[in-house]
Design a protein that fits this description.
Number of helices: 18
Largest sheet: 8 strands, mixed
Radius of gyration: 28 Å
Strand content: 15-25%
Helix content: 25-40%
Distance between the termini: 48 Å
Number of strands: 19
């Protein structure tokens, strides 16, 4: 096999070196492009005498692997990759590059789909994915261990996500994937277990879940043997939104009279079903025995699994709190007659949000936007408002009592997202705040807001007691992967076959997957990312960072006070109003920095709040 000597620091796919100006200039109009050959002054040598810096010899087979990985990582269309391969054949005729992208990517020529539930279905399976993950090496899961998992040796736990996503806005076609991630994996990406495609959601939940449940029951009973060890496989939680949870559990819909998933409370009709009280709580035993039969629609196909049908199918705060309650509150403040803010007040809030953009840490993919665009907000933007910038944006705008009422919600959710949720006392306190918030809805607003979402907020602390902080059982990672799945489709026909082929191509390139690494504080002097809380509860701004000595030069805020109107001393959560930045810098060790903070202007001061939804 011939070998290519790289003469520059360019990547193997770049044009070879020593191209002069005449090669880079535009060709004359009478140039015959069909007979155009590789320029004479481009040299391809088999010796290392003229190699740039140190000689680098790369085999053609290695280049093909790199090319395959590059094409998959950038979701390159087959037509574009085929055109590139034809050029490589012309430039390097002796290297046997394939002419078709499908050959390079090892694309399956045919896919056998199963017709079930009113659509098409493909099952990838769990076993091979878990074996691949084990071969990469496992890490210790730092989250909460369930009571029914204690004492199980060689335990591997799964977080499963089930939801639907429309293929496009102009079609009824939708995908319903079953996604999963391994808690102990170095591979941080979810993988697809099965996927359904049809004009509506699967019409038969038993047919939809049967292959998944059958394999999982087998893995639970027999374990998974690989490399001389037998691993115990269990489900830690199944994450879904309210309609999907009622679908897989075979219970009443969330908007039904007995739609609550945690208690036997019967709703009331006030132009919609609302829940104004809390009744006897459901348990694992009462669910399986269907003691409260009005809550059930049938037997769930998940019953054979070794899992708690109540708490291991938890309330997802992404849909419940971010896309649900936070979005609803913003809708009330901007459009509900009798409760909406004036045009001037909305303009002030919008101005504040826009002014926060340059102070937004790089941990946020989206920067704050004006209220005029809130109907287009994504879940992460509602989370950012709920946890971080809402208290400043609304200060002096909402009436005093309504502002304090919002802070109950903000504080309660901040605690349940943060590591404080690992402490039972903090969880109970957050639950009490959220209970008070729900009870105050009818006083500060109107009873029609007491729908399923608002009622379920009173129950979410119970899930936290079992599973830990709400981000440990949220749908955010699966929602992000839904976008990846949609991008795998290139045409408006054979949607499922396209997705399946792209996934099978990707599975051949492990290097394209994002691996978990140890979370360390990333120190920088960039505005928006340079505010930190120290271990002795001082707030500072990093001016310079010495990576070699792990030291940084910081300016300390000389005045730090607790934020007003919080239901507790905000300083207990590391939340401060700061001013009076010191003029002289201090040199401190990076180990003295405790948490990265979101710092936004507040009058002539600064509102600083530690990031709680990420480890930084």
């Amino acid at each position: 096999m011939s070998k290519i000597i790289l003469k520059t620091g360019l990547t193997p796919m770049a044009m070879p070196a020593t191209i002069n100006e005449s090669v880079l200039s535009e060709p004359s109009c009478d140039t015959d492009h069909r007979s155009e050959q590789i320029p004479q002054n481009v040299s391809i040598s088999s010796s290392t005498e003229h190699a740039f810096s140190a000689s680098q010899t790369i085999s053609t087979s290695s280049l093909k692997v790199d090319l395959r990985s590059w094409a998959i990582n950038h979701n390159l269309k087959h037509s574009a990759l085929s055109d590139l391969l034809k050029l490589l054949q012309k430039w390097y005729p002796s290297d046997n590059y394939p002419a078709d992208a499908r050959t390079l990517l090892k694309t399956p020529r045919s896919i056998q789909l199963t017709e079930v539930c009113g659509g098409s279905y493909y099952y990838f399976g769990l076993r091979n994915h878990i074996i691949r993950i084990i071969s990469q090496g496992l890490v210790y899961y730092k989250g909460k261990v369930l009571q029914n998992h204690i004492g199980i040796s060689n335990l591997i736990t799964l977080k499963v996500g089930i939801d639907g996503v429309p293929v496009s806005k102009s079609s009824n076609i939708q995908l319903w994937p079953i996604l999963a991630s391994v808690d102990q994996a170095r591979d941080a990406n979810p993988f697809v277990v099965a996927i359904f495609c049809g004009n509506q959601k699967p019409q038969n939940v038993n047919e939809y879940l049967q292959p998944f449940v059958h394999e999982l029951v087998n893995l639970e009973e027999q374990g998974l043997e690989t490399n001389g060890l037998v691993y115990s496989i269990r489900v830690r939680c199944i994450v879904a939104d309210a309609p999907a949870r009622s679908f897989i559990k075979c219970t009443k819909n969330h908007n039904a009279y007995y739609g609550c998933e945690r208690c036997n409370c019967k709703g009331e009709w006030h132009r919609r079903v609302i829940f104004r009280s809390t009744c006897e709580m459901y348990t694992e035993e009462t669910f399986r025995s269907q003691k409260f039969e009005k809550h059930h629609e049938g037997d769930s196909p998940l019953l054979p699994l070794s899992m708690d049908m109540i708490f291991q199918i938890p309330l997802d705060y992404m849909h419940l709190c971010c896309l649900g309650i936070m979005k609803k509150l913003l809708l009330v403040w901007t459009s509900k007659t009798g409760y909406k803010l004036s045009a001037t007040q909305q303009a002030i809030v919008s101005g504040r949000l826009v002014s926060f953009r340059k102070f937004t840490p790089n941990n946020f993919a989206r920067k704050p936007r004006s209220l005029t665009e809130f109907k287009h907000f994504k879940a992460t933007e509602f989370r950012q408002f709920m946890l971080y910038i809402g208290p400043v944006a609304l200060r002096g705008i909402l009436g005093s009592e309504r502002y304090k009422h919002f802070l109950l919600y903000h504080t309660g959710m901040y605690i349940l997202v943060s590591k404080a949720a690992n402490d039972l006392d903090w969880v109970n306190y957050a639950g009490a705040l959220l209970q008070e918030f729900v009870l105050g809805i009818e006083t500060h607003y109107y009873k029609e807001l007491l729908t399923y979402n608002m009622h379920s907020l009173k129950h979410i602390r119970d899930d936290v007691k079992v599973l830990g902080p709400v981000d440990d059982f949220s749908a955010f990672e699966f929602e992000n992967y839904m976008t990846v799945l949609k991008r795998l489709m290139r045409s408006n026909r054979d949607h499922l076959k396209q997705v399946v082929k792209r996934i099978l191509e990707t599975d051949l390139v492990p290097s394209s997957r994002r691996l978990r690494t140890e979370k360390n504080i990333k120190v920088t002097s960039k505005v928006g990312d340079n505010c930190f809380l120290t271990v002795d509860s001082r707030l500072c701004l990093v001016q310079k960072y010495d990576e070699e000595n792990q030291e940084c030069s910081v300016l300390i805020f000389r005045t730090s006070k607790r934020a007003k109107y919080y239901p507790m001393h905000s300083s207990e959560l590391g939340i401060y109003i700061c001013k009076d930045l010191s003029h002289s810098a201090q040199l401190i060790k990076v180990s003295a920095l405790s948490k990265k903070c979101y710092r936004v202007p507040f009058k002539e001061k600064w509102f600083c709040i530690p990031l709680c939804h990420v480890d930084v």
